[in-house]
Design goal:
Helices cover about 40% and strands about 20% of the residues. By secondary structure, the protein is α/β, with parallel strands linked by helices. Strand 3, helix 3 and strand 4 form a beta-alpha-beta unit. Bound molecules: flavin mononucleotide (FMN). This is Chromate reductase. InterPro entries: Flavoprotein-like_sf, FMN_Rdtase-like_dom, NAD(P)H-dep_reductase.
Length: about 180
């Protein structure tokens, strides 16, 4: 059986994003267990129903990438106790046209990293609700709220031993969850 494929969406658009580095670190930890494929959302226009008259290429590409994957991973920063406009925009584009959403039944893992102590709790709470409404099968536990402490990451690698253990376990659990839904 080939490794499950996961479309990874990162809710930050900035080049030095902690969440992007974290997502790449997760992809490294998942090597041999999950094939993580990064799905760009920074080139999506702001959602506008009128654009379906001549669908933007990045929208069609994103939907195709999500459809082709066995699962999705949503990595979100926290903006004002919620998820980010970029993430919401991607979810909205993927959900339309009505009846052609790319999200239903996709097994989904949600996480995020923030310099603050709540570690994206507010962002994930909102995102979990949105993903559920869109019909994704969201893995409930364990929940992973990462605080960007000194010594956690170097470039795009997790270097703290306890975090490597914990995140490795989370990814293994997600691989099992994806297999169950395949
Ligand atoms: C508009 C805005 C709102 C923010 N609100 C929160 C917040 O509610 N909680 C939090 O922990 N950090 C908050 N932050 C700080 C972000 O967590 C921090 O900038 C983080 O590095 C952003 O993710 P990124 O590095 O992946 O871009 C906010 C940042 C911005 C730009």
């Amino acid at each position: 059986m080939p490794m499950p494929t996961v479309a990874v969406l990162v809710g930050s658009l900035r080049a030095q994003s902690l969440n992007r580095r974290y997502a790449h670190a997760l992809a490294r930890l998942a090597e041999g267990t999950l094939e993580m494929r990064f799905c760009e959302i920074g080139d999506l226009p702001l959602y506008n129903e009128d654009l379906w008259a001549d669908p933007p290429v990045p929208v069609l590409r994103m939907k195709q990438e999500v459809q082709a994957a066995d699962a999705v991973m949503l990595i979100t920063p926290e903006y004002n106790r919620g998820t980010t406009p970029a993430m919401v925009n991607a979810l909205d584009w993927g959900s339309r046209p009505m009846g052609e959403s790319c999200w239903p039944d996709k097994p989904a893992a949600i996480s995020g990293i923030s310099p603050g102590a709540p570690g994206t709790l507010g962002a994930q709470k909102e995102l979990r609700e949105r993903a559920t409404v869109l019909g994704m099968q969201v893995m409930g536990l364990p929940q992973v709220y990462m605080q960007a402490s000194e010594g956690l990451m170097q470039d795009d690698r997790i270097i703290e031993a306890s975090a490597i253990d914990f995140l490795g376990g989370w990814l293994t659990k997600f691989a099992g969850f994806v297999e169950k839904h395949r």
